[in-house]
Amino acid sequence: MSRAAKAFLLLYTTVLVLFIIYRLLQFNVHKVDYAGGYALHISFVKEHPSIFPSYPDKYSRIFHNSFDDQKKYSLPAIDEKDVVVLSKMNFSSFVANNQFVLVNFHAPWCHWSRKLSPEYALAATELKGEVVTAKVDSSKEEELALKRYQILAYPTICFFAGGVKVEIYNGGNKSWGAIANWTRAMVDLGIYTISSIEQAEELLMAESTIVLGFFDSLEGLESEQLAATSKLHTDVRFYQTDSVYVAKTFQIDPEIKRPALILLEKEAKDLSNFNGPFTKSAIAEFVAENKIPPVTTLTDENALLILNSPMKQLWLFALTNDLKVTSIFQKAAKTFKGKLLFVYAQVQMDSEGVRRQIAHDFGISGHTPRVVAYTGNVDARKLVLKDELTLSNIKSFAENFLEDNLSSESENFRDSSSTSIIGTVTPCTDSDASHPTFFNH
Asked: By CB count within 10 A, which of 42, 57, 166, 367 is most buried?
């Protein structure tokens, strides 16, 4: 037999054998659902009447019995009561409004994601009250996981501080205890590094007051001083960068002498630049003076905190639509930031609650906007600005109040720049002047 004939016979035999194997051992792929996800079940046995005419149901029965067993199987119930489910609809607002968030980017079909689920749920319960714990189904939220945060493997645990992804958990040990310990270490770190414009933009959208240090090096004395200061102001998030692009995003001149420092106050989005010596005490003082918004809006939650503040206060009682007056008040407040506490109380005289009670205690009636100086709980003196609410009049009133040039012993105070009467004493309505009536409600 010639060599060509032998080759043809070998090829023919090979094709015939492969065809028979294909007919006998055809793949079958079935989707098996279970609690928490699904899996693909692959079988090499299939009912085939043309090959097994005497037992048409034999192999079908074998397979389907196995398939039914798979459907009955489910993972043990996992208590995820402390794990928040996030999607692209609520992710940004959620991480921005919570100081620390731990996020598990998982996929239900992934074996390792399923294995992590009970440990992550236990870690969430352990961290409750310290860190908010959440998860994202990356198979459904591909745009969020893959495109926005470049999550390339599942599961991936990320730590967010002030709305920014600052670290990924890379520990080999994924027990709940290891995850909880790592998370607490991240919280205790105090200062976080950002290096990309994307991180900087997320930081600008966050609902936290932030401090950002711009350094030549992310390790060294300056970084240590900033980290130490963070322990003194736990209500502020501290970050550092050596990226000129991040610095530009926060309006820091990339050519500025480093270290440089800025504070961005969350409520008014007011940017303050630090110009003192780069020491813990100087930075702490700078943060204390600038973390308070120029004007604090009175709410039910912060009313007692404001009234108990040791700082002298200047109050504006005005309707919500008095935009001109509130704008002038905001401008005046920037001049006295860190010296006087400026408070805006929205007046709605037909409503009940804290604001109406405080307005009553301050002697405010009607809808006419009023500016009132309040000395605080030391002697609880209240002095009303009676002149027109212009920027210059409010500034002058505030300056004289700060310097104790407004006297409750006189019925009025004459501004040095004006001949009009701009201040008079409003008597307290409570018999105990040091405790406004509101405290008793």
From this structure: 166
